[in-house]
Design goal:
- The chain is an alpha+beta fold.
- The chain has one domain (about 5-130): Beta Polymerase, domain 2 (2-Layer Sandwich), CATH 3.30.460.
- About 40% of the residues lie in helices and about 25% in strands.
- It is globular.
């Protein structure tokens, strides 16, 4: 199994505030994607093997799985995990219980997003949000 690790930046403050106000009813403790990481795979088989490892790792608490491969959301296609680490390293570094997002994506699909689709995604999301109110 081969995966490329793509360091996703921390969520920008303005995006975090927008998310808390619009989607999380002002409850800042519910935001789960400030710290995030992308794992990119050449094929679906390798992605599924990695997903199985994440789900079975006793040192990882998987709190939520969102499958956007089979049911894409505004053009995104990935598996998103909301996780926290429950091991001695997390305890030693005082991050036990901290929540982060891990996205498992196919390289071919991720490349489309990197080439400008993320901006389109955000615009479409904003339009959909306004029309659903």
């Amino acid at each position: 199994m081969f995966a490329s690790i793509y360091d996703a930046s921390l969520k920008r403050v303005d995006r975090a505030v927008e998310k808390v106000l619009i989607h999380l009813q002002g409850e800042v403790c519910r935001i789960t994607d400030v710290v995030r990481q992308n794992m990119l795979f050449d094929n679906l088989h390798d992605l599924n093997v990695a997903l199985k490892h994440w789900l079975e790792d006793p040192e990882v608490r998987v709190m939520h799985v969102r499958d956007r491969l089979s049911n894409g959301h505004s053009g995104y296609r990935d598996i998103t995990l909301i996780v926290s680490f429950v091991n001695s390293v997390a305890m030693h570094n005082n991050v036990l219980g901290h929540v982060c997002e891990v996205r498992l994506s196919l390289i071919s699909l991720h490349s489309i997003i990197v080439l400008g689709k993320h901006t389109q995604y955000l615009r479409r999301k904003m339009v959909l949000r306004k029309t659903n109110k």
